[in-house]
């Protein structure tokens, strides 16, 4: 199965800018389907970006984050060719992890 995470990381000088798009339904548990039944909550709870074994961005999310979330941030460090590790865990225990080379 292909990863649900698409990442682009670019280094310019001392800063690395990261943009990521994650495919996930992010159901809050407050929305009904076409039959009028409540869709159970299903959302990403923990999101982590690691560079050189250290977290450079971490988030604890709830059901208020929109479907297919987009994340953009920058951190000091990172060189072209180095790897960035991205992982998430959702409310049903599912996980996904991917790596991206810094460009």
How are the elements arranged and paired?
Blueprint: E1 5-12, E2 15-22, E3 44-51, E4 54-60, E5 70-76, E6 83-90, E7 95-101
Antiparallel strand pairs: 1-2, 2-5, 3-4, 3-6, 6-7
Give a description of the structure.
With 103 residues, the chain is mainly beta. It has strands spanning 5-12, 15-22, 44-51, 54-60, 70-76, 83-90, 95-101. The strands form 2 sheets. A 4-stranded antiparallel beta sheet has the order 4-3-6-7, with no helix packed on it. The radius of gyration is 15 Å and the shape is elongated. The two termini are 25 Å apart. The mean pLDDT is 95.
Radius of gyration: 15 Å
Major sheet attributes:
4 strands, antiparallel
Compute the separation of the termini in Å. 25 Å
Runs with pLDDT <50, length 5+?
none
How many H/I helical runs?
A: 0
Domain Sulphur oxidation protein SoxZ: 6-100
Pfam family, one: SoxZ
Protein name: Thiosulfate oxidation carrier complex protein SoxZ
Organism: Bradyrhizobium sediminis
Short descriptors:
103 residues, mainly beta, four-stranded antiparallel beta sheet, three-stranded antiparallel beta sheet, 0% helix, Thiosulfate oxidation carrier complex protein SoxZ, SoxZ, SoxZ_dom, Ig_E-set
């Amino acid at each position: 199965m292909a990863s649900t995470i698409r990442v682009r990381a670019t280094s310019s000088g001392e800063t690395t800018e990261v943009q990521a798009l994650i495919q996930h339904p992010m159901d809050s548990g407050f929305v009904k389907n076409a039959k009028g039944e409540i869709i159970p909550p299903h959302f990403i709870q923990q999101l982590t970006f690691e560079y050189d074994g250290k977290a450079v961005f971490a988030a604890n999310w709830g059901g208020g984050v929109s479907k297919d979330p987009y994340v953009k941030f920058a951190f000091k460090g990172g060189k072209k060719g180095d790897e960035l590790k991205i992982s998430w865990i959702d409310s049903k225990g599912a996980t996904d992890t991917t790596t991206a080379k810094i460009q």
